[in-house]
Amino acid sequence: MDYSDGMLLLHHFWDAAVSQDSAPSALDEGNRFPLCRPDALTALFRDGGLGGVRCEPIEIRTVFASFDDYWRPFLLGTGPTPSYVALLAPTVARTYRGSLKRRCNEDQMERSFSPREPG
Questions:
Q1: Which carries the bigger pLDDT value, residue 29 or residue 109?
Q2: Which of 2, 6, 3 lies closest to 117, judged by CA?
Q3: Is residue 48 part of a domain?
Q4: What is the pTM of this model?
Q5: N or C end of the chain: which has fewer CB within 10 A?
């Protein structure tokens, strides 16, 4: 998983959270899991003695029927980001949700979470 440049659905959440309070930036998976970057992962396997290592993306289009369809899994407490949301005071969670919803145009949810176009 390339948390540093992929996983847009998580990037949108952390960008919204950090827009409200800079403290959560340390919890962003892109910051917490440096091994989950193509160069670092490739180096790990090569350093372990494997040859011919390639690290290529597997991109899966994630489509949500609505913003609530996207938001609901964040409330389940499973995984780093939902675990963080579970610890938030309800008013703070609502603030993050509102900020995130403003960032995500509901009419364009499919486009918002499609894999990034090659740069």
A1: 29
A2: 6
A3: yes
A4: 0.65
A5: C
